[in-house]
Design a protein that fits this description.
With about 230 residues, this protein is α/β, with parallel strands linked by helices. It is built from eight helices and twelve strands.
Length: about 230
């Protein structure tokens, strides 16, 4: 049973949400303060975390940054409806997805299921599926990436983006197409901005390799050289 951690200071949210998630075989634990949430993360193994932006002690951005220092656990951030900057900043700090408040439990469930599918290793194949380029190896079965022989820690969403681009080198993917592949949703202005943020994060982790190229006002392509 997947285990989730909700960190939200709304004491009335966790019980009904946990009951709803239980219907779909998810266990949802909750903390109302970041310090308690971090303690739970250190003491237990969770499959994903759900963070509110507005929290006591530290805000959700600081909490996301603290979690990302030690963990690549998938993170969904709950943001104020209409507050674009909250969502942009959350993505820049390493969140995998965001959901505006108020939200329907069903939508949160779908978002969590999606990021868990991205993070879950594929079943081992008879022949390992690997994409090998100069300085870069992408293992599709183990969901591992090596840069010059050293492991690169990616979130599930970052790995999915890299695997998609690297599978078809030199093909230019539009921002809308990337979003539809990663999230299965039609693109909106904020979502296209989310693609730019995701690419920026991935580029930084792949440095000094320069293998993701930009076509201005359109999208991105993988430019690594196959070995």
């Amino acid at each position: 049973m997947p285990r989730l951690l909700l960190i939200d200071d709304d004491e009335h949210l966790s019980a009904p949400l946990a009951a709803y998630f239980r219907r779909f075989d998810f266990q949802l634990d909750a903390a109302t303060r970041p310090s308690a949430g971090l303690a739970l993360l250190r003491a237990n193994t969770y499959d994903a975390a759900i963070l509110d932006v507005m929290l006591p002690e530290m805000d959700g951005f600081q909490l996301c940054r603290a979690i990302r220092k030690d963990s690549d656990i998938p993170i969904v951030m709950l943001t104020a409806r209409g507050d674009v900057m909250d969502r942009v900043v959350g993505l820049e700090l390493g969140a995998d997805d965001y959901l505006p408040k108020p939200f329907e439990p069903r939508e949160l469930l779908v978002r969590v299921q999606t990021i868990l599918r991205r993070a879950r290793p594929a079943a081992p194949a008879a022949t390992p599926r690997q994409l090998v380029f100069d300085g870069l190896l992408v293992d599709l079965d183990r969901r591992e990436v090596q840069r010059h022989g050293q492991p690169v820690e990616l979130t599930g969403t970052e790995f999915e983006l890299l695997a998609m681009l690297a599978a078809e080198p030199s093909r230019m993917f539009s921002r809308d197409e990337i979003l539809e592949r990663l999230r299965g949703q039609a693109a909106e202005d904020l979502y296209t901005r989310a693609v730019d943020i995701l690419v920026s994060r991935l580029r930084k982790k792949l440095e000094p390799l320069d293998c993701i190229k930009t076509l201005r006002n359109f999208g991105y392509a993988f430019a690594g050289s196959r070995r």
